[in-house]
């Protein structure tokens, strides 16, 4: 999944039309010894991270005016080159589709021959991010660090990356990559791409597709027997934020009481023009879900079509009920088989559980079952897919 998402992030950015503005050059200090406390000039009191994130959600012209007011200049090609020798230029890009009202995607990049200079600025960005309100609510993170083609496999936290960054002194190539997603749907991407004679720059990108396409409201209902006395509850949880998206409950025929797993029967067609997934309870007379899966497109969930939620149900990750372990809740694959060998992590299961354990309807079913809860990651868009379209379907049999 991490590789898939990193590839998709590149495609995701390229899918937007591009507007670039560039700030006037900043002359770096002349001291080139990074061990002597060199610091890059603070341009904005809140830092580049806060400045860039403020752009997300602005209307297009508002964002351009905002950049202009802060000293950024735009030319006919929407791009500026630094004409001053030995200077640092910050380039900000506003990325959006023509039908977007608000800016969902903004990036900043800096090019420089000196790796130590870029490393110091990059560390400053990471520290700004670490001390922001986004860092405590991260739900996904990925790290990929390679110095002179040697991987640094033990970096799995932002603190580790910040600590080890000053020790990197590449001779040929440095690739440092971090991305994170918070539970409000913001996607943060930080990278160093430094290679002799090819590319020498750092970048920061922030994306939130939801500023133009917010999730629709889920109708609330009174949790009567009409909803709570069925055989199966199917809950929906957003992939990006783990926000609760409601439930659907239904009866099945030929119900199987024995065993500790829901008896799924799957019909799966690999992604393409007609890719799809159908999950049944035991046989084709009991359809539980049917969704199309499109390559370079977006499929549709045809069943269930409608979801509701109880009046008391929470929508975000807040649950305090202890995670019961993958003996009680587990992924299922495209064949309807329970497995943890899937391109999703158990951390995702923790978050799914934290969301659903605050939902009265889910816990009503869970407390009446001896069968393992099943979590299916439905990805209707693959290839250069959009994870804002993805979600988890969670099955619990009463």
Protein traits:
398 residues; nine-stranded antiparallel beta sheet; five-stranded mixed beta sheet; 8 helices; 21 strands; elongated
What secondary-structure arrangement, pairings included, does this model have?
Layout: H1 2-14, E1 17-23, H2 47-55, H3 60-69, E2 72-73, E3 90-96, E4 105-111, H4 115-130, E5 138-147, E6 150-151, H5 158-164, E7 173-182, E8 187-195, E9 199-207, E10 220-221, H6 225-228, E11 232-238, E12 244-250, E13 264-269, E14 275-281, E15 287-295, E16 301-303, E17 309-310, E18 329-331, H7 346-356, H8 360-366, E19 373-378, E20 381-382, E21 391-397
Parallel strand pairs: 10-17, 15-20, 18-19
Antiparallel strand pairs: 1-2, 1-3, 3-4, 4-9, 5-6, 5-7, 7-8, 8-9, 11-12, 11-21, 13-14, 14-15, 15-16, 19-21
Please give a structural write-up.
The chain is of the alpha+beta class. It contains 8 helices and 21 strands. The strands form 4 sheets. The protein has a 9-stranded antiparallel beta sheet with strand order 2-1-3-4-9-8-7-5-6, sandwiched between helices. A 5-stranded mixed beta sheet has the order 12-11-21-19-18, with helices on one face. Strands 13, 14, 15, 16 and 20 form a 5-stranded mixed beta sheet that branches. A hairpin with a 5-residue loop joins strand 14 and strand 15 (287-295). The longest helix is centred in the first third of the chain and has 16 residues, at 115-130.
- Inertia-based shape: elongated
Category from helices, strands and their pairing: alpha+beta
Fraction of residues in H or I helices:
10-25%
Mean pLDDT: 84
Widest β-sheet, arrangement of strands? 2-1-3-4-9-8-7-5-6
Unreliable stretches (pLDDT < 50, length at least 5) are 1-44, 79-86
Number of strands: 21
Beta-strand fraction estimate = 25-35%
How many separate helices? 8
N-end to C-end Cα span = 32 Å
Element-by-element helix/strand order: HEHHEEEHEEHEEEEHEEEEEEEEHHEEE
Tell me about the largest β-sheet. 9 strands, antiparallel
Using only C-alpha atoms, the radius of gyration works out to 24 Å
